[in-house]
Amino acid sequence: MHNIKRHYWIIFIFVLFAISYLNYLLAIEFQIWSATLGIFANVLIFLVVIIPFTAYLSNQIHTFTLSRNIQEKSAFKFLLLVLIVLPVVIVSLTIYNEYKEKSLINIIGYDSEQVESLEFHLDGSKYWRNTNEEAIEELFDFLSQYNVKKISNNDWNSDVSKVLSFRFTMFTKNDVIAVSIHEDRLSFHGNNNSGYYSVINGPVNTQWVKVFNEKYNGN
After folding, report:
1. Model pTM above 0.90
2. Which of 125, 110, 143 is CA-nearest to residue 216?
3. Using only C-alpha atoms, what is the Rg of the chain?
């Protein structure tokens, strides 16, 4: 009897994980986590829909295995072991992929064909906006040399008063991407990679940024 209950809970936990992980991926794809209403709706769906459906589906699977006496077979026991290990592997790989070193350009998701305009601001200067493809290409060619690594919110130092910072907003056909760079760290908002990052091969060359700002400011 204990084994039967244990089999059910293993199936239940795996099914719940599979559905929840799919829901998590969809929420990221549609940027649901970026809005309070989206988070509330997703939590509500989890409690009202996902958990009851998981219980129903798990019971159906468990009943089927009992009716066919599958639970006594060695292949089924091996499958249960896989169901236990697989979620741990997937979560570990997801965390590793999120926090591993990446190209800054890949994080931003820069696509020259999608960009419509660029708004730029360097500390001490006025904001300027430019639709010049040359200016946009020049900025992202410069940024392509830097690699970044995501850090947690607790590791983020919000005091940027002692560093030179610049900010730019990239307006694309489907999104608005905002980046604030503070020499050796940056905050990013706009797509699935939103968050805080440290610049691995920084600090960012602020002298180049000053020249770039002077070149296009007001043009």
Report:
1. no
2. 125
3. 24
